[in-house]
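ok so I'm stuck.
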Amino acid sequence: MSDSDRLVLDAFIDNIWIEKGLSKNTLESYRSDLEQFSNWLKTKDLSFSKTAKKDILSYLSFLFKSGLGSKTVARKLSSLKSFFRYLVFKSIIQIDPSNDIETPKLLKSIPKSISEKEIEKLLDAPDEKTDIGLRDKTMIETLYSCGLRISELTNLELLNLNLRQGVIRVIGKGQKERLVPMGDQLISLLENYLVSTRKNFLKKKNSDFLFLSSRGQKMTRQSFWHRIKYYCINCGFEPEKISPHVLRHAFATHLLNNGADLRVVQLLLGHSDLNTTQIYTEVARQRLKRLHTEHHPRG
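replied:
not stuck anymore, here's the structure
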């Protein structure tokens, strides 16, 4: 990437951060998408200011040929559209080359899920007698029992917990807040974690965050993801079978399988649009159909 393109990209990231108040993760996604596009332009001896519509179309074709799905390509195109609108607004270019490029049609993908027995097996894997094992089990239980996103889990602070009332205050996408109830098992795990493990990790230091590393620092998304992979292998699961997001899918699917109302699931997941939650009904429907086929005499 040339120095001039990097300066423009930095200014754009600062602009959307100030104008839209986007999260750090979202800003990093914008930057990654645009840096990838810039690197591709460099191979064609092009720059942001010299990009034409045919170049963007060629880039999208390159992404598809690289094996990316329509959802990922659509997100990258959205980043480009926002960026080129900014360049026009700042009079860096006169015409937006992405203006009339259509977003790839998205196929509604069925989220991966796992069975309740597999969840139980995963929750039994950590050794509660150790500090790391108790922390990991508590984090997995929190993620599954409350249907949290991984970023919501790692950003939980002590003040978000109300063990007496049995609820967690979750700060979701767009800084939207929601209250999620906790079950007795989770409350018991959290109480044990707070009075023993967390204090042992802190070693007289202070932290506002609920879940900590053994060094007393905030648990990162990457570290927890690796812990889940570790327990997957111990359980005999494929390492790709379970991820933090699969546990969130399992939360929604298992609620619907057991008769929960779709709008209740929407509220618990923190979805602003019911259509986003609707996809889980297909997961539940397929599972019920399979159970009918396996167990009904006329199946």
